[in-house]
Amino acid sequence: MVKHIILWKIKEEYSETEKESIRLGVKQGLEGLKGVVPGLIDIHVQTESLESSTADLMLDSTFENAEALKGYSVHPAHVEVANGKVRPYMASRSCLDYEVSDNQEDWL
């Protein structure tokens, strides 16, 4: 399995009310891809964070393998969400992709 983790920082130009709406849109859009994108096992968007955080949102997703992750990146449903609900509002994005070893599967 492959984990795909993203951290985003929302652009500062938005009010707190607008940021809350953006968070909700990202969560609904990306979590709605489960069952739509082949090879996507699980997907969760964390919208609430502690004040000590330096990111506003986190995507935690799990794929069957690296090929499934590649397919996700170009899948039309994902591209639509990314272009409509994510990219226009984000100031920064950090990504970490990694393979889950047999010993780590119990952690999921």
Verbal overview:
The protein has 108 residues and is of the alpha+beta class. The protein has one domain (2-102): Alpha-Beta Plaits (2-Layer Sandwich), CATH 3.30.70.100. The protein has helices at residues 16-31, 66-74, 76-86; strands at 2-10, 40-46, 57-63, 90-99. Strands 2-3-1-4 form a 4-stranded antiparallel beta sheet. Helix 1 packs antiparallel against helix 3 (76-86). The mean pLDDT is 95.
Please state the average pLDDT score: 95
Structural class: alpha+beta
Order of helices and strands: EHEEHHE
For the biggest β-sheet, the strand order reads: 2-3-1-4
Number of domains: 1
CATH fold category name: Alpha-Beta Plaits
- Indicate the radius of gyration in whole angstroms: 14 Å
Uncertain ranges: none
CATH architecture grouping: 2-Layer Sandwich
What gap, in angstroms, lies between the N and C termini? Answer: 10 Å
Q: Beta fraction of the residues?
A: 25-35%
What is the count of β-strands? 4
